[in-house]
Amino acid sequence: xxxxxxxxxxxxxxxxxxxxxxxxxxxxxxxxxxxxxxxxxxxxxxxxxxxxxxxxxxxxxxxxxxxxxxxxxxxxxxxxxxxxxxxxxxxxxxxxxxxxxxxxxxxxxxxxxxxxxxxxxxxxxxxxxxxxxxxxxxxxxxxxxxxxxxxxxxxxxxxxxxxxxxxxxxxxxxxxxxxxxxxxxxxxxxxxxxxxxxxxxxxxxxxxxxxxxxxxxxxxxxxxxxxxxxxxxxxxxxxxxxxxxxxxxxxxxx
Length: 254
What we know:
Elements: H1 10-23, E1 31-36, H2 43-59, E2 63-67, H3 75-78, E3 83-87, H4 96-107, E4 111-115, H5 134-139, E5 145-146, E6 152-158, E7 172-177, E8 181-182, E9 191-197, E10 211-215, E11 221-225, H6 237-251
Parallel strand pairs: 1-2, 1-3, 3-4, 4-11
Antiparallel strand pairs: 5-8, 6-7, 6-9, 9-10, 10-11
């Protein structure tokens, strides 16, 4: 009995090969470690931020691990990541060893993105006999936090469109927030990307020059975003662009 040989047409073979190639998942570009706050003030934002960040990772082809467990902030674990994202987790809520691990991660040239309460510098928050993390205050531009005004809508002014983090943002956009204030402007020590328009809301103690987004260029990839208190920002187009571009820039080689 003769063996029947079936010949598949070239277009069919091509289609099969292309389907196979398209089904192969691209390797992720980099990994992001996210530490989130467990404070009551931030529960709603943190809950909204999880799917917000997970979708962002999927859309931009990077891996993301989100946790409130600060015990995972170790040299060994952080070695697996290119970006450390501090979402509302205040520096004084971490142990000395955890602070040291973050500092080492940053000084190795890796990326750090701090959002809102991540920038709570100053000794007012310290418990008795607790040592202050002075390095972090200097890292933030030498400023200390002051009590913020009431939660309200205000305007962010983007003053630097040349930077990769803010190049895709409009000149001005409105968001509801707490509008963190500091004892002075960090401008002499940092590159300011965006400021709070103090004429657009009621301040607690006007700063005059009020940076709200900045980077400390003494370090490889550092970006602080002062806005981000409210869960509604996770569905805000401009906040989405800001956080996305901050993460992508923080992960890029210097």
